[in-house]
Amino acid sequence: MSALNHKIDFAVVFTVDKANPNGDPLNGNRPRQDFYGHGEVSDVAIKRKIRNRLQDEGEPVLVQSDERRSDEFRSIKDRAESVSELKQVLNKSKAVGADEQTAERIACSTWYDVRAFGQVFAFKGTKMSIGIRGPVSIHTATSIEPVDVTSMQITKSVNSTTNEKDPGQKTSDTMGTKHRVDFGVYVFYGSINPQLAERTGFTYEDAGKLKEALKTLFANDASSARPEGSMEVNKVFWWEHDSKLGQYSSAAVHRSVKVEKVQDLTPKSIKNYRITAEPLEGLNVEEYDGL
Fold this sequence. Notes:
InterPro entries: Cas7_Csh2/Csh2 (IPR006482), CRISPR-assoc_prot_Cas7/Csd2 (IPR013418). It comes from Bhargavaea beijingensis. The protein is an alpha+beta fold. It has helices spanning 43-56, 76-81, 84-90, 97-110, 112-117, 194-200, 204-215, 250-255, and strands at 8-19, 23-24, 30-31, 38-41, 118-121, 130-133, 136-138, 141-146, 149-156, 174-192, 231-240, 257-261, 273-277, 285-289. The chain has eight helices and 14 strands. It is flat, with a radius of gyration of 22 Å. The model has no long low-confidence stretch (mean pLDDT 90).
């Protein structure tokens, strides 16, 4: 595989329509919002979806959701220690540079998400802690405008246990609340650092797999909070620089993305927006519509 030898930037625009894209556990699982009311989706949630898409395509992933496991291991520690050579290094009594490099090489060559996002190997019972920096960095997704959050009171009538006083009657109903974003257009940005890619072994082919995962980010991601079709990737921008440093800073590239209203109306559809990337001299951009 060919090593990644040039900087890459990317941007993804997606819509949320009557869904909870990323609930805040410290706020009753309401959709995340910043101080100004703009919706947010954490970078951790985005990376989870990328990992899921890569798993769907058969890529080996270290950090797996328990309900989507593709192996018999229930924890990251068990999955890491299933690689005997890596387990031997992690259980050495003294960390030395050569050992850390060996562990990094093994982990990066074994799992896609480790060589992409990095990973900290610090487990109870092991003698060595190792931190790996990955080349792929992703920002928090933020909505273009403040979002309206609707809360809905629901009744949970599931009769989950037998009524001990009167088995012929169902148990009492319980009340709950669901929250959703009525409509919002979100954008997030990311970059791939070639210097770190050289260290972890992240290749040009790996970058191509990431690009494909971004196009179908919400495939196989449906849930009660995010019904099928309620979240959609609308546009992916992909810039490949001609050097490791890049012709422009990532900030300048990301600022070139413009998401503007076509009409001064309350937006209810992505059709109310114009999504463009201003041209940057000497730097080409590939544009993809969501699938």
